[in-house]
């Protein structure tokens, strides 16, 4: 192995893979039973890049040669960049050696499409197979499914991979037509459907026969680029909601568009990455998945965009003041979860703690509740509570005045007299 | 006020609890030998660890706490934070003071403090599972040094033993001068004499395996290239990877 060449390849193919944001390595319970290398569990972030994103998997492309010309992608055919390709053995060696040093949880392998979908997919599957069977590798493997690949290859991929994913790329079909004319949503939905059905089938098998093989035990996920096209948050979240419901997705990732091209269909090169919007979308996603919110409560016809200056839960609460205040010593867990400033863990703590005695502000504070936000929406075992009839706008003002948003780059101007 | 000094082991702490009940002591402070501060005003008494006494306390705890609850108590004890032993004593007294199961009484200050400290210990455990960086030595052993804030080696052992079952490895806590050695069958605690390399009297501290330098370089390359400069966020980066861990992280040194 030529040291300099492999280093150059890794640099090129890591660079090309980094816009795929999925980094999760959880959800699979592969055990190290064959005295091989590795296992999977709740996932570990081994380090964080300077942009603050977690590194848990060796995330690379097999090659950045691509026959497609998607405007938002660095590896598009028409882009004049260095191209490279790994051999199967090179990817296997990198994965094993990185894993042995505790650098990573496993491999995230994607690829540009060379020749055709099946040809590319076959290589990806071959790498996963080699790791599992020849090298007894039990770490995490996430394979990107190439849109348009055959069912047989997808079925084989699921036997070796922990997670499979097909990227939706853009939230709407119209956006896709505009920026990725070679792709269409049908090609993406077909493998998603196949994976979904296969997972259900294998699960049933597994219930009958304990030794039945695993099929993508960590499920499937997808990703959408945000801010490259003009979709509003409502369209994005409705799409996400649809895919959560119809395809049992584990995760939908939202990737703020990083300008990589001066194509006039796209935002200009100097445009900032929409990180705040991305963050609000993830918060909304969490509300749907863990907090029992319906997507229609978060965004609707009148509120097609998420508030950028406050989080979506607070935003919902000040639009729906009729539900508040609630008494934390009596209310159901489901209601407590809807209070701004109370998270999943603190809600659990409240419900457990109140069995032993009524909770007051001090108790709530020590449980980690953000009192500065929660105080407008709850009462507890104290005579002290918000007695004023405050409008939603006032509450928002008070909360914003009392907190320092990590996103607010420009502090509101204060009048200075001197 | 009397200060009870013990050897710092969990067994020692349980013995302290036994003595407190045996002699009906009301106001006490608990302190480890290694943390004793010279103080002429407080009376001190040394408590010698006693397996029989400790086991009696442990049995009582098992009756009143869930299995996870006893494990949590042990993990919290590994924090070695000053004053934490007093809280543990307070917690145990609270547990014995009532017949109901109080593990989830988060309105109680001892229970809440235990939960907070446990969170810190678990975070450190998780960090070590993430931040251990093995270096492959010429004799094939994978070696890593760590300096965790809390004494988490006993907590991370099972994870590494499961995961790295097919390679020999050592994880060494430089701060507390002991480590774990896994020999493909068993994982055991060891203390090393770095001057002579004993008990593994080999060249492991002088030379890397042939490909070690290449893989370290590859990992550094990878770390640099997955970063997206347009999204730079130093504050978040430092929050996740505090500087005190950098000296053992291949990608940061």
From TrEMBL, chain A:
<dbReference type="InterPro" id="IPR023874">
    <property type="entry name" value="DNA_rSAM_put"/>
</dbReference>
<keyword id="KW-0479">Metal-binding</keyword>
<dbReference type="InterPro" id="IPR010994">
    <property type="entry name" value="RuvA_2-like"/>
</dbReference>
<dbReference type="GO" id="GO:0046872">
    <property type="term" value="F:metal ion binding"/>
</dbReference>
<keyword id="KW-0408">Iron</keyword>
<dbReference type="Pfam" id="PF04055">
    <property type="entry name" value="Radical_SAM"/>
</dbReference>
<protein>
    <submittedName>
        <fullName>Putative DNA modification/repair radical SAM protein</fullName>
    </submittedName>
</protein>
<keyword id="KW-0949">S-adenosyl-L-methionine</keyword>
<dbReference type="GO" id="GO:0003824">
    <property type="term" value="F:catalytic activity"/>
</dbReference>
<keyword id="KW-0411">Iron-sulfur</keyword>
<dbReference type="InterPro" id="IPR007197">
    <property type="entry name" value="rSAM"/>
</dbReference>
<dbReference type="InterPro" id="IPR051675">
    <property type="entry name" value="Endo/Exo/Phosphatase_dom_1"/>
</dbReference>
<dbReference type="InterPro" id="IPR058240">
    <property type="entry name" value="rSAM_sf"/>
</dbReference>
<dbReference type="GO" id="GO:0051536">
    <property type="term" value="F:iron-sulfur cluster binding"/>
</dbReference>
<dbReference type="InterPro" id="IPR013785">
    <property type="entry name" value="Aldolase_TIM"/>
</dbReference>
<feature type="domain" description="Radical SAM core">
    <location>
        <begin position="61"/>
        <end position="190"/>
    </location>
</feature>
TrEMBL record, chain B:
<dbReference type="InterPro" id="IPR023875">
    <property type="entry name" value="DNA_repair_put"/>
</dbReference>
<dbReference type="InterPro" id="IPR025404">
    <property type="entry name" value="DUF4130"/>
</dbReference>
<feature type="domain" description="DUF4130">
    <location>
        <begin position="85"/>
        <end position="251"/>
    </location>
</feature>
<dbReference type="Pfam" id="PF13566">
    <property type="entry name" value="DUF4130"/>
</dbReference>
<protein>
    <submittedName>
        <fullName>DUF4130 domain-containing protein</fullName>
    </submittedName>
</protein>
């Amino acid at each position: 192995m030529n040291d300099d060449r492999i280093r150059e390849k890794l640099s090129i193919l890591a660079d090309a893979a980094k816009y795929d944001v999925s980094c999760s390595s959880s959800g699979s319970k592969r055990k190290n039973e064959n005295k091989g290398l590795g296992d999977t569990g709740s996932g570990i972030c081994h380090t964080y890049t300077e942009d603050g994103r977690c590194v848990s998997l060796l995330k690379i492309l097999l090659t950045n040669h691509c026959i497609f010309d998607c405007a938002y992608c660095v590896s598009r055919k028409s882009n004049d960049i260095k191209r490279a390709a790994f051999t199967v053995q090179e990817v296997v060696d990198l994965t094993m050696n990185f894993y042995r040093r505790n650098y990573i949880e496993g491999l995230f392998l994607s690829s540009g499409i060379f020749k055709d979908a099946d040809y590319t997919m076959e290589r990806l599957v071959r790498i996963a197979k080699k790791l599992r069977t020849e090298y007894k590798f039990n770490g995490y493997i996430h394979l990107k499914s190439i849109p348009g690949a055959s069912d047989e290859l997808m079925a084989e991929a699921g036997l070796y991979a922990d997670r499979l994913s097909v990227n939706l790329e853009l939230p709407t079909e119209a956006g896709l037509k505009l920026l990725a004319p070679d792709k269409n949503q049908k090609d993406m939905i077909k493998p998603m459907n196949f994976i979904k059905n296969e997972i259900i089938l294998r699960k049933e098998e597994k219930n009958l026969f304990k030794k039945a093989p695993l099929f993508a035990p960590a499920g499937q996920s997808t990703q959408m680029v945000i801010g490259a096209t003009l979709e509003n948050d409502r369209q994005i979240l409705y799409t996400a909601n649809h895919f959560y419901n119809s395809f049992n997705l584990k995760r939908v990732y939202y990737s703020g568009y990083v300008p990589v091209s001066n194509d006039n269909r796209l935002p200009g090169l100097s445009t900032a990455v929409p990180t705040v919007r991305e963050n609000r979308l993830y918060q909304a996603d969490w509300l749907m998945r863990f907090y029992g919110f319906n997507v229609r409560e978060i965004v609707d016809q009148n509120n097609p965009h998420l508030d950028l200056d406050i989080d979506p839960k607070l935003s919902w609460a000040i639009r729906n003041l009729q539900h508040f205040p609630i008494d934390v010593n009596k209310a159901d867990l489901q209601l407590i979860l809807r209070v701004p400033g109370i998270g999943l863990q603190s809600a659990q703590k409240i419900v457990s703690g109140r069995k032993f005695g009524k909770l007051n502000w001090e108790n709530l504070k020590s449980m980690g509740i953000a009192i500065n936000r929660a105080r407008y929406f709850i009462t507890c075992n104290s005579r002290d509570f918000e007695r004023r009839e405050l409008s939603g706008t006032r509450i928002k003002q008070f909360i914003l005045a009392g907190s320092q948003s990590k996103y607010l780059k420009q502090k509101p101007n204060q009048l200075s007299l001197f | 006020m009397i200060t009870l000094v013990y050897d710092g082991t969990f067994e020692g702490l349980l013995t302290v609890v036994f003595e407190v009940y045996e002699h009906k002591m009301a106001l006490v402070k608990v302190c480890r030998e290694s943390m004793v501060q010279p103080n002429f005003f407080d009376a001190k008494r040394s408590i010698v660890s006693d397996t029989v006494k400790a086991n009696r306390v442990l049995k009582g705890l098992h009756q009143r706490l869930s299995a996870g609850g006893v494990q949590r108590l042990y993990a919290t004890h590994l924090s070695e934070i000053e004053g934490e032993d007093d809280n543990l004593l307070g917690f145990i007294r609270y547990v014995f003071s009532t017949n109901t199961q109080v593990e989830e009484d988060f309105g109680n200050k001892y229970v809440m403090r235990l939960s907070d400290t446990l969170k810190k210990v678990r975070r450190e455990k998780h960090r070590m599972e993430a931040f251990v960086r093995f270096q492959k030595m010429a004799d094939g052993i994978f070696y890593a040094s760590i300096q965790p804030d809390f004494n988490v080696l006993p907590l991370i052992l099972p994870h590494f033993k499961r995961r790295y079952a097919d390679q020999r490895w050592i994880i060494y806590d430089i701060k507390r001068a002991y480590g774990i050695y896994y020999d493909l069958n068993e994982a055991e605690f060891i203390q090393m004499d770095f001057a002579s390399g004993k008990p593994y009297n080999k060249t492991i501290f002088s030379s890397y395996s042939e490909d070690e330098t290449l893989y370290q370089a590859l990992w550094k390359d990878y770390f640099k290239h997955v970063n997206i400069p347009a999204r730079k966020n130093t504050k978040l980066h430092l929050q996740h990877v505090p500087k005190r861990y950098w000296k053992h992280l291949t990608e940061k040194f």
